[in-house]
Amino acid sequence: MHFSRLHHIAIICSNYERSKHFYTNVLGFRILHEQYRSERKSYKLDLQAGDVQIELFSFEQPPKRQSEPEACGLRHLAFAVENIDAAIAYLESYNIAVEPIRLDPITGKRFTFFRDPDDLPLELYET
Asked: Fewest Cβ atoms closer than 10 Å to its Cβ: which of 43, 69, 77, 104?
C-alpha cells in the first residue's frame, strides 16, 4: 500500500461569494461542481487547481483559524508559478498584499506569501 498523490484540499470560508470570487476570478481555478446543501446551510464548490482539486466549503459562523503564532496543523498551501514577479504584480493589481520575496536556502528558489479572504496563508513558489 502506498499513497500516490494528493487528491484534494478542503478549505472552509466565512463568506462564500467573496471566497468563490477570490479562488475563481483572481486565482483562476476552474469550477468543476457547485452545490448548495440546504440541510447544512452550506455551499460546496469543487475547483480544479492543476492536478489537485480544492473543495471550498461555507458554514454558518465557522470559528477563526489560528494562524499566529504558528499553530499545529496545516501551515499553508503553495502554488507553483513560473514568474514570481509577474504573479506578485497580478495579485497586487487586485490590492492583495504580498510579503517580500524570500530565497529558499536549500533549492535557491524564490517564494513569497499572501493571504486569502479568511487569512489563510498562501505561498507562491517560483519553479
From this structure: 69
**Cβ atoms of 29 and 48 closer than 8 Å:** yes
For 7-56, the pLDDT digits (tens) are 899 999 999 999 999 999 999 999 999 999 999 899 999 999 999 999 99
Query: To which H or E segment does residue 126 belong?
Result: strand 121-126
pLDDT in tens, 69-96: 677 777 889 999 999 999 999 999 999 9
Spatial CA neighbour of 114 closest among 70, 81, 76: 76
- Count other C-beta atoms under 10 Å from residue 77's C-beta: 15
Provide the 3-class DSSP secondary structure of residue 7. coil
- Supply the CATH number for residue 122's domain: 3.10.180.10
Domains contained in the chain, number: 2
